[in-house]
Amino acid sequence: MGFLDRKSLIYLAIIVALSVALIAVCIDAYAGAAAAPQRDTPDDGLKCGQASVTTASGSFVDRKAFCPGELLFEDNFDTLDLDRWQHEHTLGGGGNWEFQYYLNHRDNSFPTFIGLEPGGEEYLKTGKLDINGGDPGNFCTNPAWDGCVRTGTPESILNPVKSARIRTAHSFNFKYGKLEIRAKLPTGDWMWPALWLMPRTNQYGTWPASGEIDLMEARCNVDYRDEEGTHLGVEQVLSTLHFGPNAWTNAYDTSTAPKNSASGQGFNKDIHRYQLEWTPEFRSSAWTVTTSCKWMETFGKEATLTSELPGREILGHQLVLP
């Protein structure tokens, strides 16, 4: 068996940290030629002769076989469908000691400071946050990294920004297909909008052993540059794969790529299309600015951490949208 076997699924996880303006999300079944996978149910009732290799599960999925190119999941965000998108509720973030914490509240689709907490700035250094709620919508969703209860200190202040993170962990998970998200980046400091795909089940262990696909991440600073003058704020987006036995051997640096817009034409100026094509053979990402930038990773030469990192199976299980 490879690093990730082909029986497992991925769910799409969109971390909308959350000032990104999401316009639409669309997922199609893989339309390429490939051997049909073994299925728990027959392909009876399909209008096509051969089922796609795409698999899907979740409350919004009513069958296990799909025609190539078939639309499986779509949301144009006319409203926020809470059956389709589940809110994270945690102080822990991703273990990076981020400045935001995630709440189940509509106002947090745009970050706000903890201005109503008693004590002001001093509260951040000495106060305590306990976000355990009494009903399912307010249960803490991740206790890791002091995610449910946290006390501020001068060295490690409380998260001063409220934000949001939504995912399809219960409603939609898939393996193989074409994903397109149309979105416009926000503008401002302390913002890191992200569109991620995360494992539905950590079949091979905790992060990053079971993989992660970052379709798009960005910093939203208006003028943030490195020493060479390269813009690292709203004029740059990144796409990355995370994989490896543990966090210390995460091989993301072998599978990451930035894309910069033309000067003065940042990704916060207009709506752009962020695309992922994921097949049994490869994964490619594309961002549209004025033209399309596309790159491919097969991992055959880069994934040398262990003998169980064959290129085609590193992300062979189902992902969820955060």
TrEMBL record:
TM ranges: 9-31
Pfam family, one: Glyco_hydro_16
Keyword Iron in annotation: no
PROSITE patterns: GH16_2
Keywords for this protein: Membrane, Transmembrane, Transmembrane helix
Entry-linked InterPro entries: Beta-glucanase-like, ConA-like_dom_sf, Glycosyl_Hydrlase_16
Domain GH16: 54-322
Family the entry assigns: Belongs to the glycosyl hydrolase 16 family.
Entry protein name: GH16 domain-containing protein
Organism for this UniProt entry: Culex pipiens pipiens (Northern house mosquito)
